[in-house]
Amino acid sequence: MTVMRVLVVEDEKLIADAIAEWLRREALAVDVVHDGDRALELLAGDDYDVVVLDRDLPLVDGDTVCRSMIESGARARVLMLTAASAVHERVAGLSLGADDYLSKPFAFTELSARVHALARRSRPAAPPVLQRAGIRVDYARREVHRDGRPVPLGNRELALLAELMRAEGAVVSTEELLTRVWDEHIDPFTNIVRVTMLKLRRKLGDPPVIETFPGAGYRIP
């Protein structure tokens, strides 16, 4: 149940920010860039599930970014955006290797649905429900129970818990949690993991189930 990572590549900043805000509300980790050159830099070093890629970009156009991803064997799925709605434009975009195509203007609900569908295709199938140490996480339904008791969690708390559950007893470092649960713009020196972990522990209740290993990370044994 790793948190889905999305890269939004859109030169119109208002549109890019609106897409990112919408997807972050759904507990996705979203990075935003505004040109193809920067997109290629991030794609070379980060593992994304989905790239929301505008076709008309400065410096390096979306077609070139998409082609480069295919040639490099990138795992990420591509949802291509364009202002053109003609059939031949959509066919051209898909022929480059894009997995899906969406014309502007679009409904954010449709974009979100397409992103989630592509993300499911980009990763190996994961168990729909995670269970460990009396905790049951149904990530799709956003439901958590401990010993049969419902535990209401915020999006980041849920994502953090899912990462610990998925590790199956292994220690997960703070750096790994920052990468998987938040996004590239998070301050690497922030204490947000510790603060979110405190909230999560409080909501899960006693006896404590999350162990801390100073300098190493956290785990659910």
From TrEMBL:
SMART domains: REC, Trans_reg_C. Residues 5-119 form the Response regulatory domain. One of its GO terms (molecular function) is phosphorelay response regulator activity. The modification 4-aspartylphosphate is found at residue 54. The keyword Phosphoprotein applies. Keywords: DNA-binding, Phosphoprotein. CDD domains: trans_reg_C (cd00383). It holds the Pfam family Trans_reg_C. Residues 127-221 bind DNA. Residues 127-221 form the OmpR/PhoB-type domain. One of its GO terms (biological process) is regulation of DNA-templated transcription. GO terms for cellular component: cytosol; protein-DNA complex. PANTHER family: REGULATOR OF RPOS, TRANSCRIPTIONAL REGULATORY PROTEIN CUTR. This is DNA-binding response regulator, OmpR family, contains REC and winged-helix (WHTH) domain. It comes from Thermomonospora echinospora.
